[in-house]
Amino acid sequence: MTRDLRNLAVFLTAVAALGAFLPGVHLLTLNQHLFLAANVLALNFCLGLGGQASMATGAFCGLGAYASVILHGLWPEGTLLIVPGVALVAFFCAYWVSKPLEKLGEGFLAMATLCLCLIFVNLVLTFSSVTGGSNGMMVQTAPTLPFIGELKGDRANFAALLVLIALGGYLFCALRDSRLGRALLACKDDALAASSCGIDRVSTRALSFGVGGALSALAGMVLANSTGFISPGQFDLGLSLKTLLFLVIGGPGRLIRPLLAVLVLESLLAWFHALGEATVLVHGLILTTALVAGYWRETGRLRLLPR
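^ that's the sequence the OP posted. Answer follows.
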């Protein structure tokens, strides 16, 4: 735990130093990378610790964004209650999604979370009088903290994302090295053996799934405040797929490698946007190379086809 926390401190210090000298437009891009990194960290609780493949990142992230914008519009001074309240709601939503479906098997959980993402987008489109539907919503009121004031501007959101990743990273290390974390890793390695040893697999995995959902909701709140506008397209399956891809490349269960994978690969992908129709091909080559390199690193061998 100490080594990972030290590496996390070095990583965040380096990112903070980089952000301190970046101009506004580049800092906004870095904020978008950090937002994705926070969601990758959230998914790491589910897949890295509990072994649950989830496609619901977009749904929980969107829940946090829309709830924050709507509630801050109704109660501008209620940030200290709105933020933890929405995170708690997201935790229980994720908990109760995971718990019954876990009894049906991992495949059902993956399909259900994919459907959950689709359901969330359709709900936003259906209740357009509240959410703005396909036109989206403007963020009228920024969160307000005592002695600090309104969190406005790219610098404030950059600091919020760093704090969120630091909090999530510390919680990840603490949970992984705790008794609950060892139970989660046992369920990940062999669910049947863990159950035979007296571990409540359903409830144990539901807790890690709930923590991941809460962290994604917090990331969604920061995204809404950072962009000043939210729409259903920001929280569709594309976000869930990208989050899962970067976590697989970095290595589920690792702390720093997935975060580095997001910053490095997202920066590389951004550099090739000017290639026109060849952009998709280059992006595919970069991500495929990263996946193969990750497999080679984890297994110590390169074998694309089964024997």
